[in-house]
Structures are given as C-alpha cells and as structure tokens.
Amino acid sequence: MRARGIQVAIFIIIITLLAFTVLILASSIKWLGYEDGLRLGKETNKLVFIYFFSPTCPYCKLMKRDTLQDPRIIDILSEKYIPVKVNVVERPDLARKFGVPGVPCVLLITPDEEPTKGLVGYASPEELLKILKSHNEEEKKG
User: Fold this and answer.
1) Domain layout of the chain by residue ranges
2) Residues 104/122, Cβ–Cβ less than 8 Å
3) Distance (Å, rounded) from C-alpha 104 to C-alpha 106?
C-alpha cells in the first residue's frame, strides 16, 4: 500500500514538472533563422525583428535574461513581428550585410530587407517596448 502511495506522489510530481515546462516554453519567443523569418515576413507582410548577438557577449546575456524574457516583449514580438535571432559568430555575412557595428543589436526590417529602425547595445524592456510600440503606431498611421 505504501509503495502505491509513493508511485502516485512521483506521478503527480512528474505531471507538475511537465506542466511548468510547457508554461515556460509557451511564454517564450519563438525564434526563427534568418531565411525562415524573411520568408514568413513576406507571407504575412509583417516586419522582421532581428536580434544580433554573440554567445560570449555579457550584454547579450543580460538582454536575453532581462529584456527578451519580459512578457510584454514576448507578447508584442509574437503578435506584431517575425522574431529572428542571428548569432554573429555563425552568420558574420548578415552582420556585414546590415552594417551591425556591435552586439547586442536589434534591427527591424521590411520583408524586402529594408531596415526601418535599429538599436545597438543593451536595451531594457522599457526601451525596447517603446521602440516596438512606436514603430507599430507609425505603421498604423502610414
């Protein structure tokens, strides 16, 4: 009887952990590679949000932890933009193509690869949200 109780407790713990994992995955940005993001941007006529980073960059790690995990940023990127993540070590061609002077760097481009806005350096959630919202408002007016 005691073994059965332990099995039930373990089962409940496993189910709880799985539920938390699903919640965490559901509340994160669904990053695409550059080519896939550009293709989806063309299909949906949405702006492409490109986040240029380097795995060794301390400010990139801070931005990933603080800014790109913020629920407000996740929501607006998921609804209004096509989020693309570019590792400049693996894709220096894209960093050169867009003239990225340093990382972290955020760039908004049209589906035709025309840059519209950019930001170099660490951006707090408030700073990035301001840029994303203001650009979205400009799109509605234009």
Assistant:
1) 1-29, 31-141
2) yes
3) 7
Which CATH superfamily does the domain covering 31-141 fall into? Glutaredoxin (3.40.30.10)
Q: Are 48 and 85 in contact (CB under 8 A)?
A: no
The residue assigned the tokens 């955020």 is 106
Structure tokens at 140: 């509605």
pLDDT digits (tens, 9 = 90+) for 91-142: 999 999 999 999 999 999 999 999 999 999 999 999 999 999 886 655 555 5
Q: Which two tokens stand for residue 65?
A: 């932890």
pLDDT 10s digits, 85-105 = 999 999 999 999 999 999 999
- The per-residue DSSP string of 55-66 comes to TT-HHHHHIIII
